[in-house]
Amino acid sequence: DQQVKQNSPSLSVQEGRISILNCDYTNSMFDYFLWYKKYPAEGPTFLISISSIKDKNEDGRFTVFLNKSAKHLSLHIVPSQPGDSAVYFCAASPPTAGNMLTFGGGTRLMVKP
Amino acid sequence: KAGVTQTPRYLIKTRGQQVTLSCSPISGHRSVSWYQQTPGQGLQFLFEYFSETQRNKGNFPGRFSGRQFSNSRSEMNVSTLELGDSALYLCASSQPGGFGEQYFGPGTRLTVT
Questions:
Q1: Residue B84 carries which DSSP code?
Q2: Tens digit of each residue's pLDDT, chain A (113 residues)
Q3: Residue B8, preceding bond cis, omega within 30 degrees?
Q4: Contact of A80 with A23, CB cutoff 8 Å
Q5: What residues of chain B lie within 8 A of the CB of A23, using their CB?
Q6: CB under 8 Å to B103, separation ≥6 — which residues?
Q7: Which letter, b or e, does each residue of A8-28 get, where b requires 16 or more Cβ atoms within 10 Å of its Cβ?
Q8: Chain pair A-B, CB pairs under 8 angstroms
């Protein structure tokens, strides 16, 4: 069973507009959530994270929102840039096992100039 | 600082053989985790080592094993290779106390024929 799901395999956005990537999870034990970005032939790169005690975390153009009651998180990228084109993975970890990440299937973001 | 390095980058093995993959973490990082990425199952956690001890383990058969040395370098071994073991194997390292904020290497692409 997939405990972390990204239901949109791909997303296309115009440069300068907002990109919203979504992620749902089923395991209520997860208390830490992360977003990673992956370019071809490279390993994933950490982007931003959020603890379950918060509902929002911001870092420059990237903001992650967490809705615990809906078991849903989203990543907002504003404004989107062509260099943001990559595969984005959300990941989650349970308490006391911070490096034991469960990943979603990924969403391929394409930002068009 | 040098990033996470993995060797070899590409490997072709025959069914039934065994293989050893190597990972050198970022200097100062004591936690090393291994992940398997396949088109069908996505990114899946294999195991994590910290201070030469396995700290967490994913849901993989005993054919998959690992170890960590006193300099934090890690190896993973897969015995009796199966066709389904063909995958990208990613290693990630993190600082003590880093909650899932892992730094990934470029991966080793294993093909089993």
A1: G
A2: 689 999 999 999 999 999 999 999 999 999 999 999 999 888 999 999 999 999 999 999 999 999 999 999 999 999 999 999 999 999 999 887 778 899 999 999 999 99
A3: yes
A4: no
A5: none
A6: A46, B3, B4, B25, B26, B29, B92, B93, B94
A7: eeebebeeeeebbbbbbbeee
A8: 64
